[in-house]
Amino acid sequence: MSRYSISPISASALSVLVEAPAVLSGADTTITGITQDSRSVSVGDLFCCVRGETFDGHLFALDAIAQGACALLVDSPVAGVPDSVAVMTVSNVREVLGLFAAAAFSFPARTLTTVGITGTNGKTSTASMIGSILRTDGKSVEVMGTLTNVRTTPEAIDLQAHLHDCVARGVTHVVMEVSSHALDQHRVVGVMFDVAVFTNLSRDHLDYHKTDEAYFTAKAKLFAPQQALLGVMNSDDPRGQLLLDVAPIPMVPFSQADVSDVTIKVDSVSFRWKNRAFAVPMGGGFTLMNALAAVTACDQLGISIDALVDGCAALGQIPGRFQSLPNDQGFSVVVDYAHTPDGLQQVIASAREICDSRLIVVFGCGGDRDAGKRPLMGAAAQEADIVFITSDNPRSEDPAVIAKQIAHGISRESCEVHIEIDRAHAIASAISMAGRGDIVVIAGKGHEVTQEVAGVHYPFNDVDVAKSALSHKKGSEL
């Protein structure tokens, strides 16, 4: 939530550009900056009074004016505002903030081709694949999401500022992961996506959305006429099929039935689509569906079939997405971000399909999040032969308590279960016991480079820890 300079514009002119009901009072001041953080206000700024879960920007409006704000965006009266300050009153600041930000930055999305991707799992991989295809076709591409931002989808002002920067840098195509939080909080208002993609839906973020239906309703907002021109959806997913039936925009389905000659390995997936052979240098059965989402979306953008094939083949390693760690010890190690019951189940199912011997899984669950999914994660993990329950990002909770809640979901007696709270030790133990033909799956944190414990972020990366364990195991066997 930064502060940004903008080209000077009067409060009245900005209100007209937005084309949203707004009542302007006070002086018609000239605005030269925009922010929703009162701590970053500079002279000439529009201060947007956003209500959050734990704060209300209206309470800081007078502080912002004292620091030089010349205009306010509000949805309730603020007492004591000088007549020299422009006040733009709307029904709900958060709902229109994206429009005001887009107008302040000259509507950057209108000059970009934009693809938005939503769903529980597969957003990052699908976005990366689309980016690879578009670059192969000669486009200048920006991919935004979990790997590039603090939030999967930035706040509205930050987003519009970034899109404005993309235009300035000559970017032509933006591929963006769009989270359920972002849709619920109207962060992408002001962006009309050329193509919106739905990957799948399963349990996640119920600590925020409370119910599965509310979670789906948030995701479905991406497929509204004011948000996207065209939808591409996974018709093998029940919620995707529902979108196909009820979405008020044109929808194009993709399905596993669209492909043939599928081969899935630990580090690659190949298939035939529209009578062409595709090879993706990334393993896992879910990679097939992510690739289908990507090629279908790019096909709708008019990208040639040759670029689709070459773009899939050119995909680089996606950090923490079924990331295979090469070694010469006769077994495989895979690091994946899977942190939902369905995501973990898919990763385990994909690994099982290509596993010649034992499947060993290391995972935990984050603290201060949906506790109800913990036994469900255990139930998903029990399909492995050996499970190490460990710490994820415990945050303010006791990781031992979280581990016990996970373990309650494991009922299969043939599943060997170990509880090792120290994540580095758990990873090392799993790799130490691995033998020829085994697959070790390290799930939950993926690309993350820290572990959050009691408010402190400690350096930690599953890939680095696993590589160290592999090196130690090889050395000990010499």
Automatic annotation (TrEMBL):
GO terms for molecular function: acid-amino acid ligase activity; ATP binding. Residues 320-446 form the Mur ligase C-terminal domain. Residues 117-297 form the Mur ligase central domain. Gene3D superfamilies: Mur ligase, C-terminal domain (3.90.190.20), Mur-like, catalytic domain (3.40.1190.10), MurE/MurF, N-terminal domain (3.40.1390.10). The lineage of its organism: unclassified sequences, metagenomes, ecological metagenomes. Belongs to the MurCDEF family. MurE subfamily. This is Unannotated protein. Signal peptide: none annotated. SUPFAM superfamilies: MurD-like peptide ligases, catalytic domain, MurD-like peptide ligases, peptide-binding domain, MurE/MurF N-terminal domain.
